[in-house]
Write a structure and sequence with these properties.
The structure is a homodimer of 191-residue chains.
Chain A lengths: L1 H10 L1 E3 L3 E3 L7 E2 L1 H15 L6 E5 L4 H11 L3 E7 L8 E8 L4 E8 L8 E9 L3 H12 L3 E11 L4 H7 L4 E11 L2 E4 L3
Parallel strand pairs in A: 4-5, 4-8, 8-9, 9-10
Antiparallel strand pairs in A: 1-2, 5-7, 6-7, 10-11
Chain lengths: 191, 191
């Protein structure tokens, strides 16, 4: 998505070897018009899939997921993050490890909102090591729901998340694919 | 907003004396089309105000705030919640006490995203005791920004949040106003 690439070039901050900060339009301050166009892009890509529900994880996934849900006219569910969680019968629970923050979290989704009849599109802000997607995939399996595809706003192709997904033959579509950070600059994969 | 009242009647769950659970369309699962119409309602009400930014707090405020930002074509900033927070120069920080969860949190906004030139519309999912709004108001003051108004999805008029806001003569607009829960049923204020 050319507009997103341009925005990343303009407003993204490269920190160290593998962190990109986009808190001026996605992760803290949000550009709703860009989010709407991103939702429309995901819809155009996955419109032939029988999607019944969009699944994401709080908090930064919510804005792109809600705009995707708007385009599909389908409900959005966001998994909640917990530092710890005592066993609860009414929740699907999965583990997510954050390499950036070096902390382990649990994420949960109420059993009420995901079932065997659902065809799910995962939407998330970043794909790096794939831990959030793995946690969401785990929850979809627990629900016996069908994972139709994964829509990612920004993918870092040099980290291992993509491999994990490709190995499972899940359709994936990323709006911006970054292959490297060179001298503090973002280098995109050829579109 | 009649549609929201009907949805609350249909899908809301009254828990105990003062808790309303609306996690099937707002707080966990989200109805994006309803969110869009809510954003449009906030826009219609506050369209004459010189709004430059929408401010909310993660996570349940994000969906209505982003749709409000879409209607205004203005950026949205969500305050982050922290269990604790060591002093950081680049953040505005305020305290928020949750009566429901009986926990104290800090919320923060990066100084980059709120300044003296901003005219802010706060959007949040619930107004009960007004603690979240008080924290956001505190942050707006720290930024020397101008608070133009407050848009609330669901207000519980029998709790003290509304009084706190009226005392400060801040324009407030709530899409649904609940005056009581009687026998597990929601009773709305007359519109």
């Amino acid at each position: 998505m050319k507009e997103l690439q341009a925005r990343i070039k303009q407003d993204g901050q490269v920190l160290g070897k593998d962190v990109l900060k986009v808190d001026s339009f996605l992760n803290h301050q949000i550009d709703p018009l860009l989010m709407q166009r991103m939702g429309e892009e995901f819809y155009q890509h996955f419109r032939e899939f029988p999607i019944t529900k969009i699944l994401t994880v709080e908090s930064s996934g919510i804005a792109p997921a809600v705009m995707t849900g708007l385009a599909f006219q389908k409900p959005v569910v966001f998994a909640r993050k917990h530092k710890s969680l005592t066993l609860k019968d009414d929740l699907y629970v999965a583990d997510v490890y954050s390499f950036t923050k070096k902390t382990a979290n649990k994420i949960s989704v109420s059993r009420k909102f995901l079932s065997a009849t659902d065809h799910v599109l995962i939407v998330d802000d970043f794909l790096a090591n794939g831990q959030a997607v793995a946690g969401l995939t785990d929850i979809i399996k627990q629900a016996d729901a069908h994972l139709e595809g994964i829509g990612i706003v920004i993918e870092k192709t040099f980290q291992k998340g993509r491999q994990l997904i490709d190995r499972q033959h899940i359709p994936i579509f990323s709006l911006a694919r970054i292959k490297a950070f060179e001298n503090g600059q973002v280098v995109f994969e050829e579109e």
